[in-house]
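Field log, afternoon session.

UNIT: design team B
ACTIVITY: writing a sequence onto a fixed backbone
BACKBONE:
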């Protein structure tokens, strides 16, 4: 049977052997928590969630809220340059922890510079009360 190596450890099958990136293989997972007080933030508003240091690689995120964010309000999680880098704009109707993570961000290399992660409100305003929590998980050596 054929044996295939995952991209992250493919160098361990070559001569000379190369080590895997310590930020994604054997790295430490770090949580960046953002708690947002909902106050009718309007469509187009942004909320700064975290400033991620260089060297970190995105793993996944979890969004949770004390109540649904409404049937029409959408939120995207990303950067000023790419609003949906980590979570494409979508309605969040579950009042329970929900995983997110765009595969295009999960397979990215570690950040080469500090990155400001934002939540962008779209389509409609957020509720006038309640709390939303966004946990961002990144790994780094």
């Amino acid at each position: 049977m054929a044996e295939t190596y995952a991209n992250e450890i493919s160098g361990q099958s070559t001569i000379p052997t190369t080590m895997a990136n310590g930020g994604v293989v054997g790295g430490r997972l770090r949580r960046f928590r953002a708690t947002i007080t909902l106050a009718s933030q309007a469509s187009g508003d942004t909320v700064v969630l975290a400033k991620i240091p260089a060297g970190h690689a995105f793993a996944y995120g979890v969004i949770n809220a004390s109540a649904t964010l409404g049937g029409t309000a959408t939120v995207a999680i990303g950067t000023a340059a790419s609003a949906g880098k980590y979570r494409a704009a979508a309605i969040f109707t579950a009042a329970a922890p929900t995983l997110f993570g765009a595969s295009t961000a999960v397979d990215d290399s570690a950040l080469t510079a500090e990155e400001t992660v934002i939540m962008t409100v779209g389509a409609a305003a957020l509720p006038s009360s309640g709390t939303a929590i966004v946990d961002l998980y990144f790994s780094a050596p």
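LOG NOTE: The chain is about 5% helix and 40% strand.
NEXT ACTIVITY: expression trials, pending approval
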